[in-house]
Amino acid sequence: MSQDDYYLDNDEKTVVFLMTSGPSTPHRCATPFYLGSILASMDVEVHIFFTMEGVKLMEKGVAENMVAMEGGKKIIDFIRDAKRAGVILHVCQPALPGYKIDESADIIEEADHVSRASVLADLILRCDKLITF
């Protein structure tokens, strides 16, 4: 199978990234947005669901001041690229109190939904691929 054959086999239509990484592991925080952008540009429905420490990436002021590697692009720029490509961003509502994040005041405008765990369960059950970071 040639490398080009991989691009022709695109039967997967929904991909969910479960993002638990956050500021304590910045080197893990750019790739889901980058891959999500690529997949969305290939007409794949892409959702990133932020839970555990991942919710910190959706807090105002965090991604704006964070890079995955020294001298690299800010995480907020990866987030904005993903949004422009059509990636849907969910913030886990039950995780917010543990990080003292107020869903009505502290979430960046790029987030599409503050979602309950039942939304994540539904996404997992109906997606073609689930990827965790």
TrEMBL record:
Instruction: Give the source's domain of life in one word.
Output: Bacteria
Q: Which InterPro entries match?
A: DsrEFH-like, Sulphur_relay_DsrE/F-like
A Pfam family assignment = DsrE
Q: What is this protein called?
A: Uncharacterized protein
